[in-house]
Each structure stands twice: as C-alpha cells, then as structure tokens.
Design goal:
- With 259 residues, this protein is mostly helical.
- It folds into 3 domains: 48 residues; 66 residues, no CATH class; 86 residues, no CATH class.
- Helices cover 67% and strands 0% of the residues.
- The longest helix is centred in the first third of the chain and has 52 residues.
- InterPro entries: Retrotrans_gag_dom.
Length: 259
C-alpha cells in the first residue's frame, strides 16, 4: 500500500487549522457578546445605585399628619385634600393607605366605617376611596350650592377686617359658589357692595365709570385707593414730665386760685 500523498495531507492539515480558527473566532464572538451583556447589566446596576444614592442624599419632605376627622361636614372639605396629599407624599397604597386613613379618624368615625374595614379584610380590597366616598355621601348637602351663593352675595367687610383678608374671603366664597364665570360687573358690584362705607364712598366719588372696569382692574383700584387713604400710624405720645413740687413750677393760673 503506497504512502498517502503529501500534498493531500497538507491540504487536510490546512483545512483542520481553518476549522479550528473558525471555532476560535466563534468562541471569541460569544465571549464578546457575553461581555457586552455583562457591561449592560453593570450599567443598569450603576444606574440603580445612583438613583438609590440620590434618594438617600435628598430625602423627600414629609407632610405633617392631618388632624383626625371628627365627622363634621365643614371639616371634611379641608380634611379630604389634606389626607389625599399625605397619601401621595408618602406614596402609600393598598392596605398601608387604608390603615393610615383609618388611623386619621376619630374613634366615633372609625365605628361608623367599621363595616368598610371588615369588608376590605374579607375581600382583600384595600381602597381608601371607599372611606372618602362614604363620608362625602354622609356629609352631602343638597342645598350647598344655594347656600354658597347666598353667602357670596351677602358678603360684608367686617370692621376689624383688612382689605387683604376681605379680598381673600371674597375669592374663597366665589370659588365655593362657582361664580367665577359670572360677568365682571356682577362680581364687581357684589365686592363693592360689601366694602366698608368710607372706602366705598371714596371709590364712587373718584371714579364715574367704576362698574365698567374689568374685575382685575377694579381690584387694583380698590387696593391702591385703600393704601392711599389708609391713616398713617400715629406717632408715639411723648412721655409725661414728672410732676415737680417746687413752688416755682406752679402754673400761674393755679397760683392765683390758691391765693
């Protein structure tokens, strides 16, 4: 049997080396892909660590606890926004939110919604909105809008009330009565009618087209007039002189009467 052809052996050897190189290249590609995946994972970890570090360095400011709700309708209007803002600020959801709302109720009000808590425990549905809806239904006043309009149209500036306080109260009653869409003349006349008589009289005497002004311009006019006519603080009285019993300091009229 003749020896294998040297040329054929060389070709086979080259083919084997080429195959080995292809395998090496494929392995290197796999390693590169793995390194890229590890790099992406490391970047994600770094981003998470950076976020956690920032959250530790700059803690969120916490809102104070709202007062416990006493069941009175007029306190519900301010308690609801306060308790909802607290839930958002502390990022409370689910059972944690429900328990917190429950804790911010007075004991008598906890008793009134005890059935809602029992239902939440049975069904494992912890939604604080059911408590809010309960008290909103309980405190609903069908005459609320009408009463708000009556309070708005009968507003009067109190004797000890500053103009700023009166304007703030007027704006609040405007919102409660939902009259912001009213014509400017209606809001201006209502505000004007409630001013103190002296300020109202000065405005009427100094402006012939008072009620033709837009609402915002009327407000500016009232404020400038109030500042201009406000009495300046009285200077402090001079301290009284200590009486002197020396006869030489006696008033001449008094001396005449004593004779």
């Amino acid at each position: 049997m003749s020896d294998p052809n040297p040329l054929l052996l060389l070709v086979q050897q080259l083919q084997q080396e080429l195959q080995n190189q292809r395998l090496d290249i494929q392995n290197q590609r796999n390693e590169i892909q793995q390194l890229r995946a590890d790099l992406d994972a490391s970047r994600t970890d770094v981003h998470q660590l950076r976020t956690q570090l920032l959250s530790v360095q700059t803690p969120r400011s916490r809102l104070p606890d709202p007062p416990r709700f006493n069941g009175k309708p007029y306190t519900l209007r301010t308690w609801l926004p306060s308790i909802k803002a607290k839930l958002r600020s502390d990022q409370l959801v689910g059972a944690d939110a429900f328990d917190y709302v429950w804790d911010r109720l007075e004991q008598s009000q906890q008793a009134s919604v005890l059935h809602l808590r029992q239902s939440a425990e049975e069904n494992q549905l912890w939604d604080p909105e059911v408590i809010f809806s309960f008290f909103q239904r309980l405190c609903h006043n069908p005459r609320e809008q009408q009463e708000a309009i009556q309070r708005f149209t009968s507003i009067q500036q109190r004797d000890d009330e500053s103009l700023i306080a009166y304007l703030a109260r007027f704006e609040r009653l405007s919102y409660e009565a939902n009259v912001n869409s009213w014509p400017d003349i209606s809001r201006v006349t209502t505000l004007h009618r409630g001013l103190r008589p002296n300020l109202r009289r000065i405005l009427e005497d100094s402006n012939n087209s008072l009620f033709d002004l837009p609402y915002n311009e009327y407000i500016e006019l009232v404020q400038s007039t109030d500042r201009r006519t406000r009495p300046s603080p009285k200077s402090a009285p001079k301290p009284a002189l200590t009486p002197n019993t020396d006869p030489m300091d006696t008033d001449p009229v008094e001396s005449t009467q004593l004779k």
